[in-house]
Specification:
The protein is mainly α. The protein is built from five helices and two strands. The protein is elongated, with a radius of gyration of 20 Å. The structure holds zinc ion (ZN).
């Protein structure tokens, strides 16, 4: 495809496509090429996540709070299951990451996560990975 030239002095950056184009793939998917796009957020609505993680969503009904984010709340059943190895830590991480990415950032309470709990979970994830 036609692209902008690479900057001569550092050969960085400008090698982007210059127009927008949509390709249909044989498998029914589409690729949209758009100038300068570097990253894509997750636009999946929460319904998709609920389907993929329906077992976790079911367990979440046992959380003490019904708006539980499963990251720091006391009485969180999901965290309890992770701590007891009932939910693989990798699966938990994916679940939380997707949940966070798909939710409206303006309403996000990620910043208010209890730091100690967050650290504890991080440590737990690290130690499991090392095993
Ligand atoms: Zn929870």
């Amino acid at each position: 495809m036609k692209t902008n030239d690479v900057r001569e002095y550092d050969y960085k950056g400008m090698h982007t496509t210059t127009h927008r184009e949509l390709f249909e793939l044989d498998n029914g998917g589409v690729v949209i090429d758009t100038p300068g796009l570097r990253a894509l957020g997750v636009w999946e609505d929460s319904a998709g996540i609920e389907k993929t993680f329906s077992d976790l969503e079911d367990m979440a009904k046992n959380c003490k709070f019904n708006n539980c984010t499963h990251q720091h709340e006391p009485g969180c059943y999901i965290l309890e299951m992770v701590e007891n190895d009932k939910i693989p830590i990798e699966r938990y991480s994916t679940y939380i990451t997707l949940k966070n990415e798909s939710k409206d950032v303006s309403k996000s309470n990620i910043l208010s996560i209890d730091k100690n709990r967050k650290e504890a979970i991080k440590k737990m994830i690290k130690s499991k990975k090392n095993n």
